[in-house]
């Protein structure tokens, strides 16, 4: 696991983009995340597309997760998030983008089909954030390391963290999500994770230096042979450096 410490969020986003840039070529499969952390990276990808003409026509994307029960037109659905912050501003064909569906009768069946699709389109580079409780995607503490894409209940710290997107009302935050599993994420050939701000410091320490255990889902990344963790000074403040 390579850890890069930057001065601030902007510099962290620059490093994320540098890691991503060589993958922005025809035939690559990108694994994407939502949340605040990758916004700087996506802004840089949009900028690069506009200024340098980098094309996404032959690139495919697979997102990590989606809330259960939110229509895709809901501004906080991850489908809408990806379109607002990236897909609408680059030349990627809609059919090349994949966000798991949180709607329908057979969510578990759909989740399995999504996992299979990723198996058939192996992810070259996966973008990750980390929750303050150490979750990656919506794999909460205690999720088995061998899990694949599945439906999950969100735990209170995550519902609390995400209430900021739902008028600070925890009751408005969906309590379930469809998420790539930990084994699914570990299949990506390369992983780049960004964490900034003091509220991520404990999770970053547990991920980088803690015991590899299901109580800290992100700790499994220590076992992946191609991971770059990009953190700012605040998120790195508990690391032994
Ligand atoms: C989002 C996701 C989550 C976030 C995490 C951090 O697709 O999978 O695991 O990466 O909750 O969220 P932010 O970046 O908003 O702090």
Overview of this structure, please?
This protein has 241 residues and is an alpha/beta fold. Helices cover 29% and strands 17% of the residues. Strand 2 (29-32), helix 2 and strand 3 form a beta-alpha-beta unit. The longest helix is centred in the N-terminal third of the chain and has 14 residues, at 39-52. The two termini are 14 Å apart.
Main features:
single chain, 241 residues, alpha/beta, Rossmann fold, 7-stranded parallel β-sheet, 3-stranded antiparallel β-sheet, 7 helices, 10 strands, binds fructose -6-phosphate
Q: State the CATH topology.
A: Rossmann fold
Radius of gyration: 17 Å
Strand content: 15-25%
What does the main sheet amount to? 7 strands, parallel
Which class of secondary structure composition applies to the elements? alpha/beta
Average of per-residue pLDDT values? 97
Bound molecules: fructose -6-phosphate
What count of structural domains? 1
User: Architecture, according to CATH?
Assistant: 3-Layer(aba) Sandwich
Distance between the termini: 14 Å
Number of strands: 10
Highest-level CATH class: Alpha Beta
**Order of H and E elements:** EHEHEEHEHEEHEHEHE
Shape: globular
Unreliable sequence segments: none
Q: Supply the number of helical segments.
A: 7
- The strand line-up of the biggest sheet is 1-10-9-6-2-3-5
- Percent range of helical residues: 25-40%
